[in-house]
Amino acid sequence: MSTDEAATLGTVSSLRPFFRPVVVAVVGASRDPASIGYRLLDALLSSGFSGSVYAVHPQAAELHGLRPYRSLAELPQRPDLVVIAVPRQAVLGVVDECGTVGVPAVVVISAGFAELGAEGRLLQQQLAEKVRRHGMRLIGPNCLGVLATGPHTRLNATFVPVSPPAGHIAMSSDSGALSLALLAAATQLGLGISSCVSVGNRADVSSNDLLEYWEQDEATRVILLYLESFGNPRRFARIARRVGRCKPIVAVKAGRTRAGRRAAGSHTAALAVPDAAVAGLFQQTGVIRAETLEELLDLAAVLECQPLPAGGRVAILTNAGGPAILCADACEAASLVLPELSPDTRRQLAAFLPATASLANPVDMIASATPDDYRRAVQILLHCGEVDALVVIYVSPTLTPSGDFLQAIQEGMCHARRSQHGERTVLACLMPEQVGLTLAGSGPGRLPCFAYPEAPARVLGKLAAYARWRRQPLGNYPALPALDPAAARQVCQEALEAGGGWLGAEQTQRLLASAGLHLEGAVARSADEAVALACRFGYPVAVKLAAPHVVHKTEQGGVWLNLADARAVREAFDHLHQRFLVSNSPEPQGKSTAAARAAVLVQPMIRQGTEVMAGITLDPVFGPLVAFGLGGTYVELLQDVCFRVTPLTDRDAAEMVRSIRGWQLLQGYRGHPPADIPAVEEILLRLSWLGEQLPELAELDLNPIFALPPGAGCRIVDARARVAPPVS
Fold first, then answer.
1. pLDDT score of 65 more than 70
2. Torsions phi, psi of 404, nearest 5?
3. Strand 719-723 relative to strand 501-502, pairing
4. Do the beta carbons of residue 578 and residue 570 sit within 8 Å?
5. Cα separations (Å) of 478 from 283, 645, 686, 721?
6. Is 119 exposed, middle or buried (0-12, 13-18, 19+ CB in 10 A)?
7. Helix (H, G, I), strand (E, B) or coil at 490
8. Where in the chain is the domain with CATH 3.40.50.261?
9. What predicted TM-score, i.e. pTM, was given to this entire model?
10. Cβ(324)–Cβ(394) under 8 Å?
11. Which fold has domain 3-228?
12. Residue 447: partners with Cβ closer than 8 Å, 6 or more residues away
């Protein structure tokens, strides 16, 4: 058994008392119906929990028909789970008491901890330390509690009277209020819940722990997450990538604005807003991202009762053209395809539909369509093998209930599923009587019904992308030649000893060389050296400012291109030296700094290839992020950039290259030659290695990189790197 496997088993075992307790105690149980302690005990007793329940109260003679005990030590049985709802100043004492009697699991409902500032953070730190010292697990503080409906235990250890049906959906939420809202909505929809946890301030148990538990939980098939932050995104990446292969994870991530963008001196860092990191993390790990809570529930409903689409081919069946057009537009926006139906399928439909019906895709049976028309058309479209999913739209022309039509759709779906070709995803849209998502029917005939035609298309697009991710093989961490970690660390150490900051051109070249990357050209510190290098490379050449203090060299006149002879090279050097290296430079801080400022980079001109950019930026939460996109002077304007969390697999690198809008350009577009895609992917993998090796590497920007035609590799013609002391 590997270390990771052993750790996972340990996590699962430690969380089991939260979901399968035999004995539960409530500390802070109250006689006041308005109090949380009263409501906790009430919810627990009315949930159908089959184990023993104890109330702990220092004075009461009777609570909810139970004899209360003054302390945990007086209980006749040791609790598996203790729910604490006492004032915050009393919480630490209760936790010590739990540790003394050997309680393995504690839920702290009480608020007033890290959410209230420095004093609360200190108290929460003390709470976490006590829990660790006693070998317990803790959910909370400041949380709603835990609910479970599994086959072993039915438990409501929350202070809200919710009773969702038992099922296969597990939920974790950073917000207690949203936990309540999601449970209420799931109950109204009839979504089956296996368990729900409000993690609160996450002093101990996190969503990462819960993912590992639900991975092993037979009752859970779908996992929903509401996230406001990531405690350990790198651990999340490892776990979610594994769990998502067998159980879909659907997440809403709050806090998507650009307000957290930090000032930076490179393209890579300027483009790495927090949400870009989240998007990259979810893309890498197969997490299905919901934009809203409503979409979270939509996705959950479809995942609970419909198979994943085998591909992106969709058929639309309707009795009204307008909604079908909207659905078709939404399908295309979601990267789905509406294939034209085969002549044989169209003949089968034409056999019973009127001549005025449209038999292309969408199939418009016109307003006179009957329930039997729907039944037969659904069967044909699911049998034909030409589509992976079917969206059925019914618009009531007389505003009468659609019960007969809905039943016909379900019958057609069930009939098709009894055949070997009928396992397709089926979604319905019923207009105008729907006001939101509903789940019609039960068992194999259960059908998600939406109010508007765009919603099923959006859901299908996300599920098709997830299914595609799941079908692909896991990525590998390829062995890269010519890596020199000692040389990389030496460059960073030298820079830090000199005060850190932006590296000079020669230091940057050494840093890249340690990762097997080559920055074109060489540094010259005089006009004669520049001319000698130009003669060595062959004209024409480029001469660029090599001073690290200038960020955007092109805009400031720091780049001279297509220099055809020695005279032009001398003129460029003299101009740059006068403008940047003498007149406008801050005073040098020493010999090495002065030498760096009095330098230019001489490079051979590269006349072909597609300009791309790649880089690294160090995020305080996510760690090193690798960026890729179209390059050149317009990179920040075009914003055609994607990010991934290190370490990258070969699959991650391949997906990055293919995920930008400019991917068609790299493939070859309208006479533009294609790029050497494997060489681009290798650069990304080498950058990932650098990011993992060097916690001091705050930013690295390669822009532009000329991606040459297939087999010709890539040429890095500009690079900037900044080092800073690593944050502990």
1. yes
2. -65, -40
3. antiparallel
4. no
5. 20, 16, 10, 25
6. exposed
7. helix
8. 302-471
9. 0.90
10. no
11. Rossmann fold (3.40.50)
12. 305, 406, 409, 410, 413, 426, 427, 428, 439, 440, 441
Please give the pLDDT value at position 598.
66
For the record, the structure tokens of 445 come out as 């005939």
Half-sphere exposure in the Cβ direction for 237 (13 Å, CA): 22
Note the pLDDT tens digit of each residue in 603-643.
999 988 999 999 999 988 899 999 999 987 656 666 789 99
610-723: CATH superfamily: ATP-grasp fold, B domain (3.30.470.20)
Q: Could you tell me the CA-to-CA distances from 181 to 164, 170, 249, 641, 687 in Å, in that order?
A: 12, 15, 19, 36, 43
d(CA 673, CA 359): 41
Which residue type is seen at 502? W
All CATH 3.40.50.720 domain ranges in the chain, comma separated:
3-228
Residues of the chain with CATH 3.30.470.20: 610-723
* Residue 63: both structure tokens together: 């609570």
Superfamily holding 485-604: ATP-grasp fold, A domain (3.30.1490.20)
pLDDT, tens digit (0-9, with 9 covering 90-100), for 381-410: 999 999 999 999 999 988 777 889 999 999
- Cα distance between residue 587 and residue 448, in whole Å: 69
Which tokens is 705 given?
Answer: 């990189």
Element (H, E) at 54: strand 52-56
Q: Which whole number is the average pLDDT over 28-46?
A: 92
Task: Name the token pair of 4.
Answer: 């990771």
Class of 302-471 in CATH: alpha beta
Which residues face 628 on adjacent strands? 614, 642
Query: Which residue would you say has higher pLDDT here, 551 or 11?
Result: 11
